[in-house]
From TrEMBL, chain B:
CDD domains: TM_PBP2. Residues 24-210 form the ABC transmembrane type-1 domain. This is ABC transporter, permease protein (Cluster 13, osmolytes). It is found in: Cell membrane; Membrane. It comes from uncultured Nocardioidaceae bacterium. Keywords: Membrane, Transmembrane, Transmembrane helix, Transport.
Length: 368, 245
């Protein structure tokens, strides 16, 4: 648990970067600090491991005042991940990961085994152990950065925009794996980002800061999107927050309509038989592959002829995913699959929206 | 050209109290000592300036200023000032060394502070943030990454010192400069050119030594010499790990 008690940072020139922050980051969960540049989010994070010394208030980790501890000792007990990974160019990947265990004086073989285990844990091939950072891509370097922070198994992690320097596709992967890792490890994480989408995706709790390091709102992501406390938070949460809020709402109970599907290699005549404008193609295990237009099929169905624009949703997923599946499908029929990824049937956006408009339970309060 | 070759290959010039090996030894002594003293002064100072960021302005200007000092002028000034206070050969030896040290300090100092300064800010931040103390950041992160520039500073200092150590002969000391000075006084151009060739060869050899040193102490992760042959680096990596464990 990290507790800010009136934490304040005033710089010598009188600028107040953080003005009396009170915040609790609960044990085992991800707390995201988010806000525009200049809101003091990074300063707040860096005050926790005293990379920046607070000028007022206290910061407690598990009821110990960080100011009372030796700064270097304190930092060795806190995982630290930064934007550009900050790997040491002269050290191999395995040696980079071994940094903190070595500072703590672990014996060599324990350290090495731990580092090798972490390389695989963060999804890198074991063969990377002897490579140098410059041989890795940005995303791979950031994975090493995370592994290095985890090396001594610290209960608390500080992550300062760790995923913002990589391209969107890699960022998405890193976010997914970060969540998977956190579900296994249950660290107490303080995470800084300027990206509200990342904040609501990763945070168990999101703290929105306004310029000057003043807390505007602290809430779980769904509440933040549904019920912003003022115009600043509403603006910051973004325009399509209604749609994004669906990401935190379970999919409504719908019964997918059965969808006639063909397999690869089906002849054009066979494909035209259903009479639909679009026909779904599945593999031998009935996993959806894509759509084809019978009118344009002249030879047996092949993978390179498939329209792959449609997303695929699961019945136990979010409302957003199922609505997106319907909206993104060229046929207007969103593909729904079971836990194994096998076709259950399709739903239309009209059906999803209708189901969303008549929800049972307390969520209906805002509806006419 | 033939005369030069004849002079260089003449066995008589390779023997005795005024032979090439002795002069070479003297030359190496003058150069090596000056380089050592300059490195002991300038490397720690440069690393400190780079690490703390303090005194950078001073370091830039001092090293720039020292570069502008004419060596020959300084040599005579130093002999006039220091000579009377020192006895015997020290009266010329110490001023000569002083000149060479002054010559060697600027490139070494600049290499050291620039080397530390250019270390990736994120790597330093991570080093501190993971709990390294100041000297651990310096020793484990900044110095290894500064090595290419530190060594290139030493190399360029070594080249200048080896070339300039010929000045020692003008004040009656030995070294390869003897052949130049003596050759000039008796108009023995073969001897002069032979001496010059020897100085140039020594400079090349010293630089080669520097390059080898660089290859030995700089991590392949810093030089980027890893992509070419993965097999070799992998073997190297294993070797290092084996040595460590």
């Amino acid at each position: 648990m990290i507790r800010f008690e009136g934490a304040t940072k005033t710089f010598p020139d009188g600028t107040v970067a953080v003005g009396g922050l009170d915040l609790l980051a609960a044990t085992g969960s991800i707390t995201v600090l988010v806000g525009p540049s200049g809101c003091g989010k990074t300063t707040s994070l860096r005050m926790v491991n005293r990379m920046i010394e607070p000028t007022g208030g206290r910061i407690m980790i598990d009821d110990r005042d960080t100011a009372s501890m030796d700064a270097a000792q304190l930092r060795r007990g806190i995982g630290y991940v930064i934007q550009h990974a900050g790997l040491f160019p002269h050290r191999t990947i395995v040696d980079n990961i071994a940094t903190v265990p070595r500072l703590l004086g672990w014996d060599r073989s324990t350290t090495r085994n731990r580092a090798l285990e972490l390389i695989e844990r963060v999804g890198l091939p074991a063969s990377f152990a002897g490579r140098y950072p410059h041989q890795l891509s940005g995303g791979q370097q950031q994975r090493v950065g995370v592994a290095r922070a985890l090396a001594a198994d610290p209960p608390v992690m500080l992550m300062d925009e760790p995923f913002s320097a990589v391209d969107p596709v890699v960022r998405e992967q890193l976010q997914e794996e970060f969540l998977r890792l956190q579900s296994e490890l249950g660290k107490t994480i303080l995470f800084v980002t300027h990206d509200i989408d990342e904040a609501v995706k990763l945070g168990d709790q999101v703290a929105v800061l306004r310029v000057g390091g003043v807390l505007a709102q602290v809430a779980d992501p769904a509440t933040l999107l549904r019920d912003p406390v003022d115009d600043f938070v509403a603006d910051f949460a973004g325009r399509d927050r209604g749609y994004r809020g669906l990401g935190f709402r379970p999919a409504p109970s719908l019964t997918p309509r059965s969808e006639p599907a063909v397999t690869l290699g089906t002849s054009p005549e066979e494909v035209r038989r259903s009479g639909n404008a679009w026909v779904l193609v599945v593999d031998d295990d009935r996993r959806p592959l894509g759509w084809v237009e019978p009118a344009r099929v002249t030879e047996p169905v092949a993978t390179d002829r498939l329209h792959r624009g449609g997303t695929v949703a699961r019945l136990d997923g979010s409302s957003r995913a199922i609505l997106d599946a319907a909206l993104s499908s060229p046929s207007g029929r969103g593909v729904v699959v079971d836990d194994d990824g096998c076709l259950l049937g399709t739903v239309t956006s009209a059906e999803v929206v209708a189901a969303l408009q008549s929800p049972p339970g307390p969520d209906s309060s805002g509806q006419p | 050209m033939n005369d030069v070759l004849k002079w260089l290959t003449d066995g008589a010039h390779w023997r005795g109290g005024e032979g090439i090996p002795l002069r070479l030894g003297e030359h190496l002594l003058y150069s090596g000592l000056a380089l050592l003293v300059a490195a002991v002064l300038a490397v720690p100072l440069g690393l400190w300036v780079g690490h703390t960021g303090r005194g950078r302005y001073l370091a830039v200007n001092v090293s720039g200023g020292l570069r502008a000092v004419p060596s020959l002028g300084l040599l005579f000034a130093a002999i006039m000032l220091l000579g009377p206070r020192l006895s015997g050969e020290a009266g010329v030896f110490i001023p000569s060394e002083l000149v060479l040290v002054v010559l060697a300090v600027p490139p070494i100092l600049a290499g050291a502070y620039a080397g530390v300064e250019q270390v990736d800010a994120a790597a330093r931040d991570a080093a501190r943030g993971m709990g390294m103390r100041g000297w651990q950041v310096l020793w484990q992160v900044e110095v290894p990454n500064a090595m290419p520039l530190v060594i290139s500073g030493l190399r360029s200092a070594a080249l200048q010192v080896v070339a300039t150590a010929t000045l020692a002969a003008t004040v009656g000391l030995g070294g390869l400069g003897r052949f130049l000075i003596d050759g000039l006084s008796v108009r023995d151009y073969a001897q002069m050119a032979g001496g010059a060739v020897l100085v140039a060869a020594l400079a090349l050899l010293v630089d080669l030594l520097g390059a080898t040193l660089q290859r030995l102490v700089v991590s392949p992760g810093v030089t980027g010499q890893t992509g070419r042959s993965t097999a070799r680096t992998r073997r190297g990596g294993r070797l290092r790990l084996a040595l460590r464990s």
